[in-house]
Amino acid sequence: MIRMTRTHSAYAALFLILGGLLATGASATAQTATECPREVGAAVECWTGKDDNGAYYWIAKPKQWNGVLIVHAHGGPRMAPLGPDSSRPDLVRFSIMVKAGYAWVGTSYRRPGYGVRMGVKDAENSRRIFVDHIAKPRRTIAHGQSWGGKVAAKLNETIAATPDGVRIYDGVLLTSGVIAGGVHGYDYRADLRAVYQYYCHNHPRPDEAQYPVWMGLPKGATMRRKELAARIDACTGIATPAAQRTAEQQQNLDNILDVTRIPERSLVSHMEWATNLFQDVTQRFLGGRNPFTNATVRYSGSSDDDALNRGIARFSADPAAVAQLADDSDMTGALKAPEITMHAIHDPTAFVEHEARYHAAVAHAGKEDLLVQTFVDETQHSYLTDADYITVLNALMDWIDHGRKPTPAGIAAACPEAQRQFGGRCSFVPDFSPRPYFSRVLPRDGKG
Question: Which sequence spans correspond to the domains of the chain?
Answer without folding.
Answer: 187-326
